[in-house]
Amino acid sequence: MCHACHCTWCQRETGSAFVLNATIELSRYTNLGADPILTNIPSATGQGQCIARCPKCYIAVWSVYGGGSDMPLRTVRVGTLDDPNVCPPQCHIYTSTKQKWLKLQDGLPEHAEEYDREKYWDKESLERMAKVREEIKRLKEEGKNVSL
């Protein structure tokens, strides 16, 4: 799933009006360069966020929300992909804090805050997320810092 996030935290982190984020399992993620620099920062939820930055240019490549680098999910910044067009947004989230001058006219679903994954994700994505939830449960039992 890819969404355009308009929250004020993403606006600050990117220096832009919104960010395109794609959620993907760690098992499907491949780092093609040097290991990223991991930085833990606060978040609006209070659970924190781990941002992975390119060690050469310091651009945020992916994040983990609500857990450390042990999380089995990555939230990839679509703009860092070789071809960002392969991952268009499927909805807008946190539109309650979007820039007032920005007019959303693309016909995509708009959500004032977060959205209901059960309603918007396709069957395959929901099945993949169920597996991730099981992995998170196992990691929690091992004492890892993970949440969803």
Automatic annotation (TrEMBL):
Keyword hit for Secreted: no
CENP-V/GFA domain residues: 3-96
Gene Ontology MF term list: carbon-sulfur lyase activity; metal ion binding
InterPro entries noted in UniProt: CENP-V/GFA, Mss4-like_sf
Annotated Gene3D superfamilies: glutathione-dependent formaldehyde- activating enzyme (gfa)
UniProt keywords, alphabetically: Lyase, Metal-binding, Zinc
Keyword Lyase listed: yes
Domain of life: Eukaryota
Record family assignment: Belongs to the Gfa family.
Family matches, as PANTHER family: CENP-V_GFA DOMAIN-CONTAINING PROTEIN, GFA DOMAIN-CONTAINING PROTEIN
Record-given protein name: CENP-V/GFA domain-containing protein
Species per Swiss-Prot/TrEMBL record: Coniosporium apollinis (strain CBS 100218) (Rock-inhabiting black yeast)
